[in-house]
Amino acid sequence: MAPESSEFDVIVIGGGPVGENAAQYAIQGSDRTAAIVEHELVGGECSYWACMPSKALLRPSEVLDTARNMPGVKELVGDQPLDADAVLARRESFTHGLDDSSQVSWAESAGISVVRGHGRLTGEKTVEVDGRTLTARHAVVLATGTTASVPNTPGLRDARPWISRDATNIHETPGHIAVIGGGVVATEAATWLLSLGAKVTMIVRGSSLLAGSEPFAGELVASALKERGATIMLDASLESVSRENPADTGIGRIHGGPVGLVVDGTEIVADEILVAAGRTPASADLGLSTLGLEEGHYIDVDDHLNVSGLEWLYAVGDVNGRAPLTHMGKYQGRVAGDVIAARAEGKSLDSKRFRATADHGQVPQVVFTPLEVASVGLTEAKARKEGIDVEIVAQDIAVAGSSLQQDNYSGRAQLVIDRDTDTIVGATFVGPGVAELVHAATVALVGKVSLDDLWHAVPSYPTVSEIWLRLLEARRTADH
């Protein structure tokens, strides 16, 4: 039910986790009021169509793979496939059947009002929601995120392809699916589609998977996907698409008859096509033009997350294009909320907490494929491009902890070191279960911990984190 008041201290357009964080931090511990304006589901893309359902779909295959490489367990598992119905049921338990009532209850318990409808700016501190005008006393926050991009390839849009929302909310597993793209969404979706029994063909425009990562990461992930049956076409050009009887059958259901794809002159026939070819900022109808700003583009902000020097207007999360990851958006939401609260209370903004600096070369990320790719900071190529005097230390992950975790463990780790400061500016770990390694690297990077000091951060034995010792030993050996 919409709140009766039309005036709030803070109005947030966009009810995903980023907007929720901004609203919460702006008013907590005070008598200030906040409203979240949301035209879909409170909880946003992450809760229903991205982070939560995708990881729920990925975890079972990870467990099965570990079991198949563990004597005493693999004999019980054998070559049995996943129980697809059970996997999808568990996914549904996390998305609550696309019911956001629990998220609304949380917002209300935090003192945040929920206003249903499409919000757009109509002037300074004013937001129109389906004909109703809301006014903000202190701030308006834009947290509308992004939407899936579908290229204008002949016939592609008419074929009603799947986008990421269909893949994460899958209800019917295609016999053969063509995946367009080679980035995070493409590789993660290919992983769970393979585990559910689909034949997967990846059509990648570039020369590698995960092009923004270290080259060895994309190579190892490609090998792991191929081992599980994926066909990967690199440097491939999708020329046209045709489909028999395309139909809107619902999210995650096969959208019509067979799909014909012409790739570099060769036709491929699949049961479904998934487009994972990037994202577009959801800023086309936010009323930005009423403030002299451009609609439909990423929204530039400063480190306070303010838009174009407007002290009352903020943009956080994917819509500003700085670091399009849920955890980074939530971080920005916390910073913006703190800034709003401080300004409302007349406090100084001198503290580091009031500036978003982590998305300047300190961004952590984990990609969940048959091998996890956990990274933070700069790749070697990006560091060299920034003029850093780079030193590289790399090692295969072959320590007691990894051999105990499972048989046939395979992984690799690399540090990018700034010689001038003797600190880490980038780190990448690839292998089963390496996601938990990246936070130590993040702390070292953000804290500018020297390699000499890291020598005294002793990893516990026997854990996979012992790879830190091996990397530091390799560095010592190189120095001598």
How would you summarize what this structure contains?
By secondary structure, this protein is an alpha/beta fold. The chain has helices at 17-27, 44-48, 51-68, 74-77, 84-95, 101-109, 164-168, 184-195, 215-227, 326-344, 380-385, 400-405, 438-446, 451-454, 467-479; strands at residues 7-13, 34-38, 112-116, 119-123, 126-129, 132-142, 146-148, 176-180, 199-203, 231-233, 238-243, 259-263, 266-270, 272-275, 279-281, 306-307, 310-315, 364-368, 372-377, 390-396, 412-418, 423-431. It has three domains: 7-43 and 100-147 and 280-354, FAD/NAD(P)-binding domain (3-Layer(bba) Sandwich), CATH 3.50.50; 157-277, FAD/NAD(P)-binding domain (3-Layer(bba) Sandwich), CATH 3.50.50.60; 371-479, Enolase-like, domain 1, CATH 3.30.390.
How would you characterize this protein structure?
The protein has three domains: 7-43 and 100-147 and 280-354, 3-Layer(bba) Sandwich (FAD/NAD(P)-binding domain); 157-277, FAD/NAD(P)-binding domain, CATH 3.50.50; 371-479, 2-Layer Sandwich (Enolase-like, domain 1), CATH 3.30.390. It is globular. It has helices spanning 17-27, 44-48, 51-68, 74-77, 84-95, 101-109, 164-168, 184-195, 215-227, 326-344, 380-385, 400-405, 438-446, 451-454, 467-479, and strands at 7-13, 34-38, 112-116, 119-123, 126-129, 132-142, 146-148, 176-180, 199-203, 231-233, 238-243, 259-263, 266-270, 272-275, 279-281, 306-307, 310-315, 364-368, 372-377, 390-396, 412-418, 423-431. It is of the alpha/beta class and 480 residues long. The model has no long low-confidence stretch (mean pLDDT 96). Strands 1, 2, 3, 4, 5, 6, 16 and 17 form an eight-stranded mixed beta sheet that branches. The chain has a five-stranded antiparallel beta sheet with strand order 18-19-22-21-20, sandwiched between helices. The protein has a four-stranded parallel beta sheet with strand order 10-9-8-14. Helix 1 (17-27) packs parallel to helix 10 (326-344), helix 3 (51-68) runs antiparallel to helix 5 and helix 3 (51-68) crosses helix 8 (184-195).
